[in-house]
Structure formats: structure tokens, C-alpha cells
Amino acid sequence: MPALVNYSGDDEFFIRKNSIELGRLCSISSQADVYWPPHKRVRISAPFLFRETDFEQNKQPSINDLPGECIFEIFKRLPSGRERSLCACVSKRWLRLLSSIRKGEYGSSKVVKENIDSVSYAIETISSNENGGYLTRCLEGKKATDVRLAAVAVGTSGRGGLGKLSIRGSNSSCGVTNFGLSSIARGCPSLKSLSLWNVPHVGDVGLYEIAKECHLLEKLDLCQCSAVSSKGLIAIAENCLNLTALSIESCPKIGNESLQAVGKLCPKLQSISIKDCPLVGDHGVSSLFSLASSVLSKVKLEGLKISDFSLSVIGYYGKSVTNLMFSGLRNVSEKGFWVMGNAQGLQKLVSLMITSCRGLTDVSLEAMGK
């Protein structure tokens, strides 16, 4: 009879390859020749099963089981920026909670407030001798993310916050959004200079937060910010009255009404640069000069759909202009340059640069020279 089981003399149970499962082997008819060693039971290896009650008893409580509101209140009472930075390294959840706290909300008790003020004052005094007295950060490419901005906001809040921030982003889906910019606004209310380049996911909501918290903002540079509209820039003009320099380039949603608000509400504006903004026309440029002519000294207009009317307004109201640059103005003619020169308002002009403007002729140059 063919042997289905090979026995080697020990107590182990051997099965031929064509009989794999034990149940199948035992179900073979009685005619099959099977060896079953006496006084031995089949050894079965099975995982030990925990009862649910035993597992719950061994489970240790964790601070992460607390609601976000409770952890938020705990973080507000941390004594210094060092402790906040260490907590931000634990998890992204803790980092997000810390970045949502405004700088003025830290320290509900008198003792905690005194510790924060003493530590911040000491560090600010040390750092005041570098970089013009404030901290600067520049994030470029893949490094420009919301997580990094939140970490910068939390890490620098104990040292007086950022004074200058430059973001050179990209079109990737993980780039900077309104959340990252809002973190900077809440953690760095002392921000004075902000530069946003190629950040398509940042819109008016991010600028709203900057305008709401950063009242000391002096310089704003927007380049390739396709989601930012006139509403965001108007919010900046209404809340950042110390604005001295504004640069707008390739922002298709920013139009005339925002420039009118800047000219009306920003009395300290000294420098303006506008390039390749299709919604900016004569109404915006003329309003800007007629309302902010007292201190406006540096002007750069490039690739705009303005006409001779804007040039005549500049020639009449540009009494403080020292540097003037025109480039790619295809709708201006000889008459516009002639009127600008004969208006005799550009008495302080020391630098004039004109590029790719078809209306420039010898007659217009002679008028401006006189």
C-alpha cells in the first residue's frame, strides 16, 4: 500500500506534499494508511487572544486624547518661546495649534506674562544689532510650504517675530496657502516687509490676516499672485498706514479700485511699481498720483494699458517724483509726453528711463527737457 505518511522514528508528524491540511488528511477514508503516533497531540501555534477589557485596562492615557481646545489653552500658558518651539516639534497637530495662537494671547497669568516679556526683550536687544534690528527669512521652491511657515512663526515669536519675509514659491500643490500666511500674521505682528512671488494658492484671505495683524507693514511685493484681487490689496491699504513701497507684477485680479485706495489711505507711500496688470488703467494710475502726490518719489510703470491722460496727470501732480521709468506703454503718443513735460510738475526729476514706448519722439523729449 502506498505510504501516505513517512515516519522517521521520532514523535513528529510528517505529511506527504499532496496532503497539506490536517483536516483533509483526517477526512481520508479508513482504507488509507495513516500513521498517528500514540499519546501525542497535535501542537497548534495560535496567537494569544486578548480580551477587550484586558486591552483597555493596559492602555495608558495620552495628552492627545484631549480636545484641541484644551491643548490650545495649555499652549497659551507656556512660559517662553523655547518651550513652544519644543512642543511644535512633537507633531503636526501641535504645530498647527501653536501657529493658530496670536502673539498677544500668550500668558493668561501675570507671572507668565512677565517671563515672556523678559525673555523677548533680552533676545530682541541682542538681535537688534543685526539685519537692521529684525529677523529675516527667505523660503524658496520646495521649502516654501505651510508647515515651514508655521514653524518659522512659532520659532521666532519668542524673539520678537519676523521683520522681513520673502517667499519664492512654485506651482506645486503642496506650496504656500492662506493657512501658512495666516500663521505668519498671528505669530509675527511686527512684520515690516513681505514679498510673495509665484504663490498661486495664496489669496485675499491670507492678505486679510496680514492686514489685520501686521499694522507695521512698510513694504509689500506681489508677483505672480493669481488668486489675489483688489479686495486683498484694499484691506492692506485700510490697515497698514505705514506702507512706503508697493510693487505689483503679473497679478491679473488687481485693478484700479485698489490703487485708488492705496493713494487715499497710505500717506507715506514713496515708491510704486506696477507691471503687467491688465485691469490697471488710467483711472487707477491717475487716482494714485492725484491722491498720493506729496511724498511719492519713485515710479515704475511697465506693460500697462494707460493712455496720454495718465502721463498728463503724472506731469502735473508728480511734484515729488525723482525717479521715473516707463516701459512697454503702447497706448501713449507724442502728445502725452509733450503734455507731461509742459505741465512743469516734475521739477525734482533726476532720473528718467523710457523703453519700448512708440509715442516717444524728439518733440516730446524736448518738451520734457525744458
From TrEMBL:
Identify the SUPFAM superfamilies for this entry: F-box domain, RNI-like
- Tell me the GO BP annotations in alphabetical order: SCF-dependent proteasomal ubiquitin-dependent protein catabolic process
Q: Where is the F-box domain?
A: 63-102
The F-box/LRR-repeat protein 15-like leucin rich repeat domain sits at 164-363
What's one Pfam family the UniProt record gives for this protein?
F-box
Signal peptide region: none
User: Which Gene Ontology cellular component annotation is one that this UniProt entry carries?
Assistant: SCF ubiquitin ligase complex
What SMART domains is this protein classified in? LRR_CC (SM00367)
What InterPro entries does the annotation carry? Answer: F-box-like_dom_sf (IPR036047), F-box_dom (IPR001810), FBXL15_LRR (IPR057207), Leu-rich_rpt_Cys-con_subtyp (IPR006553), LRR_dom_sf (IPR032675)
CDD domains on file: F-box_AtTIR1-like
List the protein's name: EIN3-binding F-box protein 2
Q: Which organism is it from?
A: Gossypium hirsutum
Name of the encoding gene: LOC107953695
